[in-house]
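Researcher: Go.
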Amino acid sequence: MEDLLDLYALPFDPKRPVVCADERPYQLLADVLPPLPPEPDQPRRIDHEYERRGTCNLFAFFQPLAAWRHFVVTERRTAVDFARQMKDLVDEHFPDAEVIRVVVDNLNTHTPAALYAAFPPAEARRLTQKLEFHYTPKHGSWLNQVEIELAVLARACLGRRLPDREAVRSEVGAYERERNERHATVHWRFTTDTARIKFEHRYPS
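Model: Structure:
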């Protein structure tokens, strides 16, 4: 825990960005009957019946100190999918960084081994040299700031029925652009000193 809290306390460094990453499944649902449009003094009405259209996965990346977030909608979330997202972080989003410090949870795909599963050894090694993984503790995924951003996203545009991945991409893309343009971010206040007080019982006396 203190590793992450000390990491969050560091000043902004474009050469060593801190990027919080996570993924989230999303269920695709379609209306069976078309919704009724809103009328004066009457909101839009949706029938309770819906059709299941499977699921998709949402990769989320959040750099709090730069007020930047990025979302990618994929069919699934395998180790290879994760590796491809890490490659995009290195080559597309932060090409000038010396090292990207990535905050992730302990999912078994969140390891350098995923890169070796997806790319030839030389390419995997090139990428792992640019990535520095920092893991949330067990039962401590709330320490990953991207969880807050995902909660805001869910309230903003994922609380209604979206029938396919293209619809999800459209909604999420609009959210991403609006939040990035407003430079919206998380003001993190939970520090190492606070943790030592809050979780005093966890430390040896």
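Model: The chain has a mean pLDDT of 90.
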